[in-house]
Amino acid sequence: MEEEKNKEEYSVFLRQIEQQRNEDISLMKTVFITVLIVLAVGFIILFFAGNENKIKAIFGDDSHIAKIFDSIVKKRQESPKISSMFSSRKNILLLGVDSNGSNTDPWRGTRSDTIILMNIDGKTKSVNAVSIPRDSKVYLADGHGVQKINSAHALGGVRLTKKTIEETFGVRINKYIIVSDDAVKNVIDVLGGLPIYVEKDLNYDDFSGNLHIHLKKGEHVLTGKEAVGYLRFRHDGLGDIGRTQRQQWFLKSLLEKIQHPDVIAKLPEIVEIANNYIKTDLSGYELMQYALMMKNVDMEKIEVATLPGRPNKKGSTSFWILDPEKTQEVIDRMIYREHEKSELTDVKAGIVYAPEKEHEAMTMKKKLEEQGIEIVCERKSATSRALFIANSKDVSTKYFSELKESVPELRGKQFVYDANKFNCPKSDFIVTLTGNDK
Question: Which helix (H) or strand (E) holds 249?
């Protein structure tokens, strides 16, 4: 009986994956705010380079940002070139935590809603990001037993979270950044809202948690409160996995917003928010170095993935059961950057397109076939994201870049690695064409 129930739940899950096969598994709110703060520091350094007095005049002699700037100037004088420590790969743990209702210590006893391990390569100026579903069933370090991985922060803070991830996945974490929901809310409000296209109606009320989400499908300028709701919404049948699939538009919109010149005048408020709602062991100098590097990162070269597995429900508790082999495959590819050196032959592809994109889909099909690629899947779907989804470990970002030279219509699409292979498992990659390419 229990086995039949699990099969039914899994069947429902697969149907929901199929309905949303166009969507990527991507970065979440922690990455957005991290990028914002890092770039903000970079803007300060680049905009005010060589003018320490101007920094102090704007932010105040004893302000936190003025002190950071002083330390950075001294570091740069000691070592005018970018530090060699950034020429190697670094793993940074990004955590987004919920609220504990405390005004004294917002970090104590909070669960990590978002867990992302970012691998940053200073040499190639590239970024890989692995999202670890918060419901992942793991052994917590220090004898805390089998629990959801998001419990680690509530039980032992960032130390226990780091240790659990390192022991579970065999990786080393160099630095960490923790962001609270209040950071998202306040930053978006300071920016004057965030334009975004909501791909479907989102409705949910949690009166005990004071979370109310009511967003209609279409164009919006989200307030800070609405942005938090958009990022936290997970009641569309896919739960935590569904929530991780909504965030790339948010990142793109945020990056476009902070590139506007008006943001310079808002930097003092953004830095103040960072002081109150972001916790990190990165120094000001390290933030500056990453900001300088990220300024030159090609967004199309950012590779993202979510640890593969399947859903499982025991009583009222839902778990994400990680697939050991596929999880190791993702870790090897994304964190250790191990790619098998093999020539792709007999390449197979799929095309998923919105009904109004049929003409573009047929053009795409023709151009791919001209490259000797066989189209094995061709489907119409209410797709909401323009993606290049790699289903095979042999399909790398390098292969994607080379293919774009011959098929320029692929430019601008987010590269996603899907080890679960839910989308057309016989294909090496899938291209999605959306009716709204924002």
Answer: helix 248-258
